[in-house]
């Protein structure tokens, strides 16, 4: 690892020339800069989310619940910040957006590899999205690893097993989590973990809901730039859950 001098400047440490030089609007329209910066910002936060999630998974394998809770709390806060950023984008009116929409070509947030990897790492593993990335490419290989490797949901189940609970089937996993909730004081580490996982799922649902409202506000029911169905497709994603068993058990508590 290269050690930089103690007198390094703020701009050099953050590589601001690269970051601030990464905005290249394809039109001369004022509002395109906002669109670019909002989405670049989201990709930076997604990079941090993946960084934190990898750490949380490593900690969970060690049953280090205290640091797992702290790390997942950070993930949750970042998710909240990302959801709030849609509010800024809604200052872009339909008329403003349609002036430069054509310069986006076929690019779409639907193609965000980091967002799909985040879903996979949580436990929402749908291989259909692999087709959006060239076979053999570095990004495709990263996605395939995320599909194959244990997710946060998988590691939560493994933690259940290490603490003596039956995880031999989906039914038994559901029963084990129900037992944890019904005896929360005797299973505080697992109970706290479960509630952190629900926090992440709820934050994802809030992100999706805010996203679809923003899309409906700006483009209505138009087709998305990448060929997706736009708002109707986004509405279909609102019920996605990484930890469905933790939601279903609430009816039985």
TrEMBL record:
Keywords: Dioxygenase, Heme, Iron, Metal-binding, Oxidoreductase, Tryptophan catabolism. Pathway: Amino-acid degradation; L-tryptophan degradation via kynurenine pathway; L-kynurenine from L-tryptophan: step 1/2. It comes from the Bacteria. It holds the Pfam family Trp_dioxygenase. The keyword Heme applies. Binds 1 heme group per subunit. The keyword Metal-binding applies. It catalyses: L-tryptophan + O2 = N-formyl-L-kynurenine. Heme binds at residue 211. Its EC number is 1.13.11.11. Its cofactor is heme. Substrate binds at residues 35-39, 97, 101, 225. Homotetramer. Heme-dependent dioxygenase that catalyzes the oxidative cleavage of the L-tryptophan (L-Trp) pyrrole ring and converts L-tryptophan to N-formyl-L-kynurenine. Catalyzes the oxidative cleavage of the indole moiety. Belongs to the tryptophan 2,3-dioxygenase family. This is Tryptophan 2,3-dioxygenase. It comes from Sphingomicrobium clamense. The lineage of its organism: Bacteria, Pseudomonadati, Pseudomonadota, Alphaproteobacteria, Sphingomonadales.
